[in-house]
UniProtKB/TrEMBL annotation:
BP GO terms, sorted: protein folding
Gene3D superfamilies hit by this protein: 3.30.530.20, Activator of Hsp90 ATPase Aha1, N-terminal domain (3.15.10.20)
Family per similarity comment: Belongs to the AHA1 family.
InterPro entries: Aha1 (IPR036338), AHSA1-like_N (IPR015310), ASHA1/2-like_C (IPR013538), START-like_dom_sf (IPR023393)
Source organism superkingdom: Eukaryota
Any GO CC annotation of this UniProt entry: cytosol
A GO term for molecular function: ATPase activator activity
Protein name as catalogued: Activator of Hsp90 ATPase AHSA1-like N-terminal domain-containing protein
Domain Activator of Hsp90 ATPase AHSA1-like N-terminal: 29-163
UniProt xrefs under SUPFAM superfamilies: Activator of Hsp90 ATPase, Aha1 (SSF103111), Bet v1-like (SSF55961)
One Pfam assignment: AHSA1
Amino acid sequence: MAKWGEGDPRWIVEERPDATNVNNWHWTEKNASPWSQEKIKELFNNIKVNTDEADIKISEVDKCTGEASANNRKGKLIFFYEWELTLKWTGKLKGGDTELSGKIKIPNLSEENDVTDLDIQISIDENDDESEKLKKIMFTKGKDVVRDQIGKYISGLKVEFSKGMILPKKDEVKPDNVKTLTSGFNKKINMTPVAIESKQIGLKIDTTTIKTVHKFQCTAQEFYDALTRVELVTAFTRGHVKCDPVKDGKFELFGGNIVGKFKELVPPSKIVKLWRYKQWPEGHYSTVTLSIDQKNDHTVVTLEQTGVPTAEADVTRGNWDRYYWDAMKQAFGFGAFFT
């Protein structure tokens, strides 16, 4: 079997014979986007909202942008999906003569958000007493219908794209025993953290360096604190964290998906740490250096991360943006501008 990182640049196996993916070790991936778009359109085509007060239906999908994929990593199924949806709906009050219309927006349907926590926005085209009554009914009844249909999409995605993803192993372990996980730094995954001291000898890994520069509307001290104070790290990661900001102090974020330890702390201008993503080869760590430079009206942060597995560079760069910088902007109002 090829060593990690050799062969295909991303070390992904797609539609390969069983013998080439021994014990499901390789990362196999299926594009679930076209299927997802059709399924979502089907699920929201003329769906009735049951209520005694009005005749309401969700008529069609007006917008469906995003992507979805199913992955098999070391015998674990990982589903990724991220969609922005806009639905059309129509309705009229019982005994009313006028049919009114509106829209339902779901800005962030993803594996990171539980169906019960989805942001579902209801709007209506008119602005009068009858419209407001109808809109209120949609808030109380329509949202439940939307959540039910989205739940059907998610379960359908997992059933449809589990087929053929887990290949027979030498010991004939059945797919029923394989866990289904979500992807990325999902805080809801309960994983056992990888020990910092673990090592793997003789593993050849092709690595690269990531370097990015960002601007934040905050002081250097505020930014430094956001990455080193437990209560602030908890605020933007939205989950339990471990963070001991001293030399060789360990940290664990996003349900154990990100672990490491601090190597150098120079308040408020510099943070250096060993950092790894759980799915990387065992014992492999990158080095993250954050240089924090306060200007007159903003702070410039330079991130340099060495030792990143080449196959994971793009994903890692994107996850820094999504799970760190964007999350910090939302949590603390830093108003980040990416350069």
